[in-house]
Amino acid sequence: MVQTQLDLFSGSGRERGDPTGEAAEAAPVLIAADLDDGALSAAIPAARLKEAPALAAEAGRRRLPGAVPALSALCRRFIGFGRDGVVPEQRAALDALAAIGGAAAARATARLLVERVVEGPNRAHAVVVAAGLGTQLPASLLLELMADPAPAVRAAACACVGRQLTLVPRLLELADDEATEVRTAAVPALGRMGRREALPMLTRLLREAPTTTVIEAVTAVADEDCVILLARLARSRDDLAMAALDALAVIDHPRARQLLARLEAERCA
Questions:
Q1: Is 60 exceeded by the pLDDT of residue 6?
Q2: Of 71, 89, 109, whose CA–CA distance to 13 is shortest?
Q3: Cβ neighbours of residue 125 closer than 8 Å, sequence gap 6 or more
Q4: Considering only CA atoms, which of 223, 226, 196, 225 is closest in space to residue 214?
Q5: 183 φ/ψ sector (left φ>0, alpha ψ -120 to 50, else beta)
Q6: pLDDT in tens, 74-117
Q7: How wide is the angle at C-alpha 106 spanned by C-alphas 93 and 52, nearest 5°?
Q8: pTM of the model
């Protein structure tokens, strides 16, 4: 039996018959901005190396939900690459998925990670994209990502936990991580699960480094101190005021209802 070796270039845009020589020079260059939405999506999966990043970027700029399968297919052409360096075509596709947003983009990004289509720096970027899209990843994969040497990957993994209670012990460990960005991602993840162990750190973050993520996470565990801090944010931070008001509206605490009524009266005055 003759054994054949896997040809890693078979999906790279350099396969046999691919226009990389004279045929490539003769083929017209695709200008992304000149293509309509359907033509753009159709061109992405088999785009030449020099064209693929621009086509993917244009799909992201237009925020085309219909391009999500094409962007996923583009990433899959490069399975086996990227362990030691960035694959520009995969990076461009991931950035486009992040720009498009929505449930379909989140599911596509999750599959790329679960099926290990992206590796190395490309996987690290995909985890950050997944976190931004609000993607929930499987616990087995998250445990692996939470042990990654890169703090950005560990932090992004915390944002992809959802309400998987089996990950609480690991999140508690990461709440004491040496990297600030990991701690400030693990603690809100615990808060969203209603874990009161997160309350002291969430209260501190509300006081010292408030964000919409922290505000949303504190609603499930808030005490009176948190309620007062939220009311102060609603008065003093225009960029966080609406998030703080929304949080006060869902917190089941008499002080929250009292302060919310007062704040709403002040806004109407």
A1: no
A2: 89
A3: 86, 91, 94, 118
A4: 226
A5: alpha
A6: 999 999 988 889 999 999 999 999 999 999 999 999 999 999 99
A7: 10
A8: 0.83
